[in-house]
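Hi all, posting the design record for the shared folder.

TITLE: backbone redesign
STEP: 1 of 1
STRUCTURE INPUT:
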C-alpha cells in the first residue's frame, strides 16, 4: 500500500511540475512575441511572395512551426487578405523594387488565384519588376507565373500543360461489399452530390454540368494567359491537346517561359537589376514580415467602416470551428456588426460548398435582418454553392469572380441502412419497442416503410420549394425562371452573371467599393475591418497546444488514405437536410 501511495504521489508531483513548466514556457514565448522588434525594411528590398502553401481568406501565423514541436503544427496558412494588402502597399513603397514569386503549386482555388493575379497586374502598373522561378509549374502555378516579366524554369524541370480536369470518387461498390444501403432523397436533376453513393460513374446530367463548368473556367484561364504571354488562345488549346509542351525546352520554344535557368542564375540577374554587388545577399522580405514593417497608415474615418465578415468552410449548426461556418457563431458576429453604428455597410465574404440546410436558413434570416438596416453585399470566393449561395441570395448585390463555382440550388437527404452490415459482418442485431409504429423513425437499423420514405422525400421537396422561393425573391425573378437555373446545377461566375444569379464580376475589393457606395461613403472616407479578427500567433499556438491537432495527425498516419477518412467523417456529420454542391470538386 505504501509503494502504491509513493507512485500516486510521484505521478501527482510530475503533473504539477509539467503544468508549472508549461506555464513558464508559454509565458516566455508570449514575452518573445510581445517584445519582437519592428521589422525595418532595407533599401532595394524584394517582396517574396510564396504561394506554395495553403491559402485561406484570413491567414494563421505559426512562427513556431520551424521547431517541429507536437503542439505547434507544421505550416503557416497564408491569408488572401494579407497577400492583397502586401501587394497594394508594395506598389507605392519606394523600398520595394519588385516581387519574387514562388508559385509552382499553389494550394488555393481558382477564384483565390484570380484575386492574386489581378492584384499582381495592378502592381505592375508601378513599373516595378515581377520575376518567378520554378523547378516545375502546375497549371494553377503557371496561371500566376504568366504575369511575370521574367519566368525562369529549371532546365531539368517541367510544366504541366494538358488541360483542366475534374475527377469524382464513387463509393457504391464499397457500400455494396459492406452491405450498407444508402437511402437518398433529393430534388434536382443536377444534385449530383449523392451519386457517389448510388452510382459507380457520373450521370449524364452530372457530366453535362461538370463539362460546361470546367469549360467556362478553362476559357477564362486561357484568355488571361493569352493576354499576358501574347500567345493566341487557339494555339494554347492546340498545345494542350497535343501535349507539345513536354519539357523545359519546348516551354521556352512556345514562349511559356522567358528563361531556362537555375535559381542562382535568376538571382544573378536580380542583383544586376537591383544594382547590388555580386557578393551581397538580396534583401528578400516575406508577406508577414513586410506587413509587420510596413509604415503605411490606415486612411479614412474610424467612425465610418465597412465590415467584411468571412464565412469559410462547410456550414453546420452551433458554433462551428476554424474549418467550418457555425450558424450560431455567424449570427452572433453579424448581430454585433449590425448593432455597431460605426459600421455603415457589410460584405459577406463566402467560400463554402454548403452544408446543413437548417443552418443555412438561420444565417440567411440574419442577413435579411441586417440588410434592412445597412447595405449587405455578397463577395464569392472559390466556391459559394448550395448553402453558400443560400447565404448570398439574402444580400443586396452578389459579386463573384469569373471562375467562382456557384449555384447548386437544391436539397438532399441521406440515411444509411446498416442492418445487413451490422448483422452479417459484425453479428450485431437490433430489436426494441415503441409507443407508435414510427417511434424510432428515421432509423438506420431497420428497413424503412414506403410511407416513411415518402415522408422524408416530402420534407426534402418542401425544403427545395423554400430554397427556390427565397432565391427568386432575392434575385427578383419569377420562381419558374429560377427553378430552370436550379435543379442542383453548378455554374461558373461568368455563367451565373449571364443567367442572373450573380450581379457583378469582381473580387472582394469590388464588393467593398459597392458596399461603400451603397452606404454613401466617399472614396478614402472609410476604413475596412475583417471579422472575425485574425488570431494572434500566441493564441493560435495555445489553441494547438490545448487541442489534439487531429487533422494533422490523421494526415501523417494515413497519407493518401486521409481524404477518404475525412469523407467518412463528413458522412457522419450529415444530419438532416443538406444543401451541398458535388463532393470534393477539385479542378486541376
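Okay, here is what came back for every position:
SEQUENCE:
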Amino acid at each position: 500500500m505504501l509503494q502504491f501511495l509513493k507512485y500516486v504521489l510521484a505521478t501527482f508531483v510530475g503533473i504539477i511540475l509539467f503544468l508549472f513548466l508549461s506555464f513558464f514556457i508559454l509565458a516566455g514565448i508570449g514575452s518573445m512575441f510581445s517584445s519582437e522588434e519592428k521589422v525595418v525594411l532595407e533599401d532595394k528590398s524584394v517582396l517574396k511572395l510564396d504561394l506554395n502553401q495553403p491559402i485561406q481568406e484570413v491567414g494563421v501565423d505559426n512562427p513556431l512551426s520551424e521547431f517541429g514541436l507536437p503542439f505547434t503544427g507544421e505550416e503557416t496558412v497564408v491569408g488572401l487578405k494579407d497577400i492583397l494588402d502586401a501587394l497594394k502597399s508594395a506598389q507605392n513603397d519606394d523600398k520595394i523594387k519588385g516581387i519574387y514569386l514562388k508559385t509552382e503549386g499553389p494550394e488555393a482555388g481558382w477564384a483565390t488565384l484570380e484575386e492574386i493575379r489581378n492584384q499582381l497586374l495592378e502592381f505592375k502598373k508601378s513599373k516595378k519588376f515581377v520575376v518567378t522561378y520554378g523547378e516545375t509549374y502546375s497549371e494553377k502555378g503557371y496561371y500566376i507565373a504568366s504575369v511575370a516579366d521574367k519566368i525562369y524554369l529549371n532546365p531539368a524541370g517541367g510544366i504541366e500543360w494538358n488541360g483542366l480536369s475534374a475527377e469524382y470518387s464513387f463509393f457504391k461498390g464499397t457500400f455494396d461489399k459492406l452491405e450498407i444501403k444508402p437511402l437518398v432523397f433529393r430534388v434536382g436533376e443536377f444534385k449530383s452530390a449523392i451519386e457517389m453513393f448510388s452510382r459507380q460513374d457520373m450521370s449524364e446530367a452530372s457530366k453535362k454540368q461538370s463539362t460546361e463548368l470546367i469549360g467556362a473556367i478553362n476559357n477564362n484561364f486561357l484568355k488571361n494567359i493569352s493576354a499576358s504571354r501574347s500567345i493566341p488562345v487557339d494555339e494554347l488549346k492546340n498545345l494542350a491537346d497535343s501535349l507539345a509542351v513536354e519539357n523545359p525546352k519546348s516551354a521556352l520554344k512556345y514562349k511559356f517561359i522567358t528563361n531556362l535557368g537555375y535559381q542562382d542564375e535568376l538571382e544573378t540577374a536580380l542583383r544586376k537589376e537591383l544594382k547590388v554587388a555580386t557578393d551581397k545577399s538580396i534583401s528578400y522580405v516575406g508577406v508577414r514580415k513586410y506587413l509587420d514593417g510596413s509604415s503605411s497608415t490606415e486612411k479614412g474615418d474610424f467612425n465610418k467602416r465597412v465590415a467584411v465578415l468571412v464565412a469559410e468552410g462547410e456550414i453546420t449548426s452551433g458554433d462551428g470551428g476554424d474549418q467550418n461556418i457555425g450558424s450560431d457563431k455567424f449570427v452572433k458576429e453579424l448581430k454585433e456588426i449590425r448593432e455597431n453604428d460605426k459600421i455603415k455597410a457589410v460584405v459577406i465574404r463566402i467560400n463554402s460548398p454548403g452544408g446543413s440546410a437548417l443552418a443555412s436558413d438561420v444565417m440567411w434570416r440574419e442577413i435579411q435582418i441586417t440588410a434592412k438596416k445597412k447595405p449587405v453585399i455578397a463577395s464569392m470566393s472559390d466556391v459559394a454553392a448550395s448553402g453558400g449561395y443560400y447565404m448570398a441570395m439574402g444580400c443586396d448585390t452578389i459579386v463573384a469572380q469569373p471562375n467562382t463555382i456557384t449555384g447548386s440550388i437544391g436539397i438532399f437527404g441521406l440515411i444509411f441502412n446498416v442492418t445487413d452490415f451490422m448483422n452479417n459482418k459484425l453479428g450485431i442485431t437490433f430489436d426494441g419497442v415503441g409507443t407508435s409504429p414510427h417511434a424510432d423513425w428515421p432509423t438506420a437499423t431497420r428497413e424503412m416503410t414506403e410511407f416513411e420514405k415518402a415522408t422524408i422525400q416530402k420534407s426534402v421537396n418542401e425544403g427545395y420549394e423554400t430554397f427556390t422561393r427565397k432565391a427568386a425573391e432575392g434575385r427578383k425573378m419569377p420562381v419558374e425562371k429560377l427553378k430552370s437555373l436550379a435543379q442542383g446545377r453548378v455554374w461558373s461566375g461568368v455563367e451565373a452573371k449571364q443567367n442572373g444569379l450573380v450581379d457583378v464580376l469582381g473580387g472582394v475589393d469590388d464588393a467593398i467599393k459597392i458596399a461603400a457606395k451603397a452606404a454613401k461613403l466617399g472614396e478614402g472616407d472609410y476604413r475596412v475591418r475583417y471579422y472575425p479578427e485574425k488570431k494572434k500567433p500566441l493564441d493560435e499556438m495555445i489553441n494547438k497546444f490545448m487541442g489534439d491537432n487531429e487533422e494533422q495527425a490523421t494526415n501523417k498516419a494515413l497519407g493518401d488514405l486521409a481524404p477518404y477518412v475525412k469523407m467518412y467523417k463528413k458522412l457522419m456529420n450529415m444530419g438532416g437536410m443538406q444543401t451541398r454542391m458535388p463532393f470534393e470538386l477539385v479542378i486541376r
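COMMENT: The chain has 22 helices and 22 strands.
Let me know if anyone wants the other runs.
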